[in-house]
Specification:
The protein is an alpha/beta fold. The chain is built from three helices and four strands; from the N terminus they run E-H-E-E-H-E-H. The protein has a single domain, classed as 3-Layer(aba) Sandwich (Rossmann fold), CATH 3.40.50.1820. The protein is about 30% helix and about 20% strand. Strands 1-2-3-4 form a four-stranded parallel sheet, with helices on both faces. Helix 1 links the parallel strand 1 and strand 2. The longest helix has 20 residues.
Amino acid sequence: MPTAARAWTGFLHTRKSRQGKSFQPDVRATVCYYGTGIHDGKLGQDADAGSLARAREIHGELLMIFGTKDPHVPDAGRETIDRTLKKSGVRYNTLLYPAEHAFTRDEGPRFDPEATDLAFAEMIRLFHTVFLS
């Protein structure tokens, strides 16, 4: 019996996304919000979570969402991610918003409702394109 196609959304490059949800062949779309640790491999106690090294294993569409004021994923980090994804042949898009890390979290000073709405709309657009078109 074939498995259903799935989508995956991860915030902060969570432990579950590190465990390979995006790399599973039945995941046709992944959205990654402000992926901490992707550019340098540091996630929690791991010296290198290895996500970029596995980029070629991503089978579906990938949408990366970052705030340009995010100290955890600076310009150089986003450039590293972009360069690696281009080399890997992954079908992806990166969206940048003039916001801080965790800007969709609706509490505290980092919350940016406009950037949140725009990013959410792009996530829905990706899922619509992949699953309904």
